[in-house]
Amino acid sequence: MKKILDDIQNSWNDKRYGRLVLYALLMVMMFALACIGVYLVILLIARYIDLIMITTAVVLGIYFYFHERKEKLLTEREEIERRELLRQQQLASELAESNYQLVERAIFVVIQEMHESLRIKQPNFLSEVATTPRYYQRGNITIYRFSALKEGGNINLEAFRTILQGRLTQKLNAMEFTGINQSVHIYDGVAYPLLQVIEPQDLGININWGIVWTNDSFCEEQNMKLLARQQVSTRTVSRPRDRDF
Predict the structure, then answer these.
(1) In contact, 180 and 164? CB cutoff 8 Å
(2) Can you tell me the mean pLDDT for 108-127?
(3) Residue 138: helix, strand or coil by DSSP?
(4) pLDDT (tens digit per residue) in 131-147
(5) Could you give the CA distance from residue 168 to residue 196 in angstroms, rounded to a whole number?
(6) Which helix (H) or strand (E) covers residue 89, if one does?
(7) Which residues contact 29 (CB under 8 A, 6 or more apart)?
(8) How far apart are CA 188 and CA 207, in angstroms?
């Protein structure tokens, strides 16, 4: 278009009026063809207006039908997923509650036997080892929480964990706990104690700790922590010292 306009300008400057007339005729013809095209389109629409309206209505009807159906299916799927999530949460809650009672009895028995070595007071009732909340979720890991009164003085938390874990593992291996029919959890070919003592805390007059019913998620978490500690240890050992130079 710019080239044509430049040619018209040059023809005007050079007084080539014949060429200008040709351009004028061309523009008139183009305008006439455009008018005819518009007229034919209007004529065609007017002639087939009923068919066009019916076709448009059918297309829109089909579109809205499938769109509404898609929205309905999406809503139904979300509702199914929501109900399934609630069902799984309910089952998990029921399992956690059931397992808590088994773990509570197991811990109670171990503490009654080992309270002197653990330097805590001997409990006489299950409620004496309970704390609030009784358990909580950390991802797919359920941590059961317990507490006991100290006999006095500070407690070596690692020694407490080791002693409690050792006796707990012995009794698990001997199948001495009612309702617990396995002693280990197998993950990646390695046997882990079914119940593991974690996170002992000295709170002054009492000591709290957690018990995990071992599953794949917990084993994976422990392996990741072990790997992280090994990497830190490796970096520390390999760090150059002044006397190395």
Answers:
(1) no
(2) 93
(3) strand
(4) 988 998 888 889 999 99
(5) 8
(6) helix 49-118
(7) none
(8) 33
**H or E stretch including 199?**
strand 195-202
Phi, psi (degrees; rounded to nearest 5) at 172: -65, -45
- Most confidently modeled range among 137-141, 184-188, 223-227, 238-242: 184-188
Confidence of residue 245 (pLDDT cuts 50, 70, 90): very low
CA–CA separation, 120 vs 108, rounded Å? 12
In single-letter form, the type of residue at position 180 comes to I
Write the CA distances from 192 to 104, 119, 158, 186, integer angstroms: 20, 26, 19, 6
Return the closest-CA partner of residue 212 out of 157, 144, 135.
144
Strand partners, 146: 130, 209
CA-nearest of 106, 192, 165 to 183 is 192
Question: Rounded to an integer, what distance in angstroms lies between the CA atom of residue 224 and that of residue 57?
Answer: 61
Average pLDDT over residues 58-73: 86
Mean pLDDT across the stretch 157-174? 95
C-alpha distance from residue 206 to each of 107, 200, 215, 223 (Å): 16, 11, 29, 30
User: Whole-structure pTM over 0.70, yes or no?
Assistant: no
- Tokens 């087939």, residue located: 48
163 contacts: CB under 8 Å, gap ≥ 6:
114, 117, 118
